[in-house]
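Holo prediction. Input below; ligand is adenosine-5'-triphosphate.
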Amino acid sequence: MHVKRLELSYFKSFGSTTAIPLLPGFTVVSGPNGSGKSNLLDAMLFALGLSGSKGMRAERLPDLVNQAQLKRGHAIVETRVTVTFDLSDVPPEEIPEGAVRTVESTDEQPAALEWEVTRKLRVTKQGTYTSTYAINGEPCTLAELHEQMNRLRIYPEGYNVVLQGDVTSIISMNARQRREIIDELAGVANFDRKIGQAREKLDAVKDQEDRFHIVEQELKEQCDRLDRDRVKAQKYQLLRAELNDKSVWEQVLAHRQLQDRIVALEHQIQAEAQQQEKLEAQLQTAAAELHTLSTHLTEANAHVKALGEDEQLAVQAAIAAQEAELRQLERQQADLKATQQKAAERVQALQTQMVQQQRQTRDLTQQRQTLADETLRTLAQSRDQAQADLSAIREQSQAIATAADAWVQEQTQLRQQIETLLATLDPQRSEFAQLQERVEQIQRQRESQQEETQSLNAAIATKQQQLTELQADLEQQQSTIQTLATQFADTETKARTEQETQTRLQREQREKQRQLDQLEAKEQAQQEAQGTFATRLLLKSNLQGVCGLVANLGRVEPHYQIALETAAGARIGHLVVENDEVAAAGIELLKRERGGRATFLPLNKLRGTQDLPNLNTVSGAIDYAIYLIDFDPKYEAVFAYVFGNTVVFETLQAARRYIGRYRMVTLDGELLEPTGAMTGGSRSNQQTLHFGHGEAGESAEVLELRQRLAE
Ligand code: ATP
Ligand code: MG
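Structure of the complex:
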């Protein structure tokens, strides 16, 4: 499988639609810095939606749209990247859905399968944007695209695209980070991630289960508490009712007792009254008896007076007896009166008591009435209260029941989830078992190594003994080392100052070196401008009367430079001198110095210009070479010698018609001799001598200076 084609429309530096074909194997894209090579990789990351992990070099998606296109001010600008994969060599089961068979197999060519991923980004004028993916023109989501790409082993976190700097970062990674990359490439990391995700899910489910357990526990406790409260309330109600019943009974009994007492008291009063009546009757009979007795006495007294002394004495004795009897009766009467008095008092007291009792009875009945009313009211209230409590409790328990139902449902769902997760975990468990087996193997190895270690330990013990001896030695050495260390510290500070001076000197040296490099470069440039070794030697010798190289005396427009330098040929390196004497001195100098050969053009001996025929009728001719170069008039003879009657033509085509008539050069540097010889082809860069040129871009100041120099 390989990427066969990449097509970009208005993507970053690509201002139109460009298709880049990529061949199987290895394709190199080269170009100067900033020409957009890395933008191709950005485009690939963008189209395949791999920009998440890899650094695509854009802050926001709209930065990916070609800036020039954006500036044009369209309402909507669209960038589109299409990546076409060639899947000819992919096994059928790994081919993503929707791959299109584009080329049927022939004898020479196997069938080719193409798979095309396109991403479009539309940015509005306001800066909002939308992005869409499509596989073979069918819109799809990023997740779907990634799923398909997974079959081709292209992963968002993978290393299918290696960016500028990735290789360096891989080299500088530690072993563990590199191992992660290998895992990623082998597809193990994907499973690791899935395991991690499953674990996280499982943990979350367990957490939830625990939470629900706690809630359940609390609800149960609440239920129990409410149940206990309910039992208590019921008991309270029963007791309350009993109490009310009993207190009513108590009042009834008290009332009856009082009534009984009233009846008893009334009986007693009646009995007392009868006794009083009896006593009054007795009193009356006693009074009547007394009356008869007193009449008897008066009769007896009269009888006595009538009868004399004896009789008087007898009568007196009888009187005395009668008086004694009377006194007894009087005493009896007083006693009876006292008892009557007492009885009357008693009756009085009983009556008041009775009145009191009656009042009390009335109070009690009243009290009983109010009590009965009150208890009834409070009972009714508490009954209502209890009913309200009961219904509240019922509602609560209802709510708890529904919550419990929901919880049970959730629980079963979670169970199912756990089961599915467990099912996915099973293969991983078997893998884990294999790994454990390996761990056991390693442990066995480790045990054998431990045995080895034990034997080594014995050796270590002997070594340790040696070590203690050595340590004693060491302590001695250390004291000497300390003294040495202080010395060393001193030397180190010295060394540091030395080092600093050294770095400073090095910096200065580098500075000087750079200056030297610059000077050397300058010298090189100058030497290049001074032609051969011989001419350089002459120019450097400060010989009086040397005007300079032909190349240094003329200035041309860049347009004609190639033509004029070709026309001048080797003469461009001839040395112009004031007169033949200077030339002779120069030749002498070269001989003496073994400096090689040079050609001198003495101004006093060169012949002047000849008149050149008009070129008006020559089509394609620009002008005579001598008229296309700018020089000091005193060197006219020099340039007449250098160029002769050479004519400059636009093209070789135009020049060919005049072969044999003129010496001709073209703007591309072909040379046509009057003899018919034609020289041309590719130009080497070995020619080091050039005419200078006063470009149009030269500043007024430079032109002025040039003028003054000429004057
Ligand atoms: P190097 O050799 O230095 O790595 P390169 O060839 O990889 O260079 P790129 O980094 O791909 O070059 O291209 C960067 C060029 O793309 C820059 O000239 C930048 O101006 C241009 N560029 C980036 N984004 C846009 C854009 N949205 N619109 C227009 N031009 C852009
Ligand atoms: Mg680059």
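Residues 630 and 696 are 14 Å apart (CA to CA). That is the main takeaway for now.
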